[in-house]
Write the structure tokens for this entry.
Amino acid sequence: MKNRYYQKVKKYFDKKASAYDDVDTQLYWVLSDCFFKEILKREIPKYFKNKKKIKILDAGAGTGRWTLFFYELFRHKYHISGHLIDLSEKMLAVAKEKIVKKNLRDKFSLEVGNIEEMNRINDNEFDLSLSFYNVISFVENPPKALKEIYKKLKRRGLHISIVANKYHAYYFAILTNRLKEIKMIKKHSKVRFNDNMPYIHCFTPCELKKLYQQAGFRKVYIIGGPNFIYPGMEETFIHGNTKNIQNKLKDKDNFNKILEVEINAYRNNDIVGRGNVIMALAQK
Ligand SMILES: C[S@@+](CC[C@H](N)C(=O)[O-])C[C@H]1O[C@@H](n2cnc3c(N)ncnc32)[C@H](O)[C@@H]1O
């Protein structure tokens, strides 16, 4: 790979790959995942009312977590198959191992590649594309990636992404006493949540909506979340847990109460800019 930026991104995720799924032991991210799974449960049937089959393009699939979550959530409702593509060979190797272990090799194919140029994939091929947890923030050219994903979707196909929220980026820079980051956010719409990661794109809800519309998407709905509980610096590292967040969430009742407040508010347009991250549901 010649591109210096992508060499850096690839190296960053190759290094994280073997421990990446330990995110399932970080209570903040467990809560965040429960929140987004519940949103999928509520939103997906609205978009795929008369469908029996869903073909997924997991664009920036990483270790395949969201393809497999999606499969578990909906395998009784739809016939699910798909293609996983990622820059990092090592992240995808973990995905492949999990797919093989679950006996799903006939349903899912994998490809090391750049989602800005998916030349090996046919246009108008997929019902749904997922780019969860900052994939569109990590790509070098987000408009190009969204146009490429748009091409690969069938008519009325849906792309769901989760990206970094610019407003939260300001909050986090202040929370973690890294005020020098404010200039980067303001001037270049770029953020890093700790000093070890590459700078990534961040968006306001309106900026994200516009980006999708410019890529051709007809209907774009933006959701923020989690809106009432945020990660600390510890959660930006694999295995890190901020004490006060962990203490709050390790009590099952507290966890469920917080999750309920989050879910009750997820369709409230008043709070969309409060999200730790922002999610787009964009239809072709
Ligand atoms: C934070 S991880 C998220 C992985 C997965 N979507 C998840 O939610 O678990 C971001 C992923 O995006 C991938 N990525 C970044 N830029 C990419 C690009 N241009 N093409 C393909 N994958 C990319 C990285 O290699 C990494 O695996």
About this structure: The radius of gyration is 18 Å. The domain at 4-283 is CATH 3.40.50.150 (Rossmann fold).
